[in-house]
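Q&A log
Question type: sequence-to-structure
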Amino acid sequence: MTELAARFPLLRPMQRRLDTAAREMLAVPGRPAIDFTQPPGEPALVGPDSVSWRVFKNPVSLFIGGVTAVILELAEPSVRTGVWEHSSFRSAPVPRLQRTGLAAMVTVYGPRSVAEAMIAGVVRMHGRVAGQTPAGEPYHANDVGLLSWVQATASFGFVEAYHRYVHPLTPEELDRAHAEGAPAARLYGALEAPASQAELRAFFEAMRGRLEPSPIVLEFLAIMRRAPALPGPARPAQGMLVRAAVEIVPGWVRERLGLTERYGLRSWEAPVVRATARLADQLMLPSSPAVQSCLRLGLPADYLYS
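Response status: OK
Response body:
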């Protein structure tokens, strides 16, 4: 139990519910559970003193950042076509979110051998994904440029959500957060993924001519507002968190996609999102990969919360 929950007993039921939800979210149907406590001592792709381990422990900013990342991914026509035509997102969004969430947790916290094996499986799966966009442009999911765009949008979404709603990161921490994704990016084949804030800005600028509006972006947001992605008590806030995700998409991208002000946060909602995300950052979830992985490395359960 964190110091916050110890001081405020009324928070303990919330902590237990969030912990149960975190455990259920990572229980992907048809896939064996991953024990992040094993094997003892095996390091992850990034270390526990990294910015990434701090960022990825927060379930609220992860949800927000994940939605932001997908908005940006779907703005690119080849990625959009591949995602929409070769995934079960429209028909079964929650299992798809579970698989994506588990992959992110394994990439950051999982033992290196488990992460490498999982990523190799994703690369093999991508090898079977190819086609043409509606405009007739051929694409392949293992294309270095497309993989790098997906890596860049994920890094931007997760880091920016934490920076904006949880705890402002220094310029040095922002650079570190992006650089820490490099080992996983190489394994995925995203060889052009940016490794600093400056490289990220340059990459986004280079993509200006590729990004375009699509009804699929709006369909995605509608799915994310109504899919039971959050635990029951938190579900009324789901629409607000989706709007928080739209809010941190770069302004020129929002304009290009037609994401007008009504898709973003109301004036009173931003402080609520920040308060919720900051509270979540202080509530230790014993079943979370962040805590379980600290135990694997012989660190205290509350290492990331002290």
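Response note: The CA atoms of residues 72 and 250 lie 9 Å apart.
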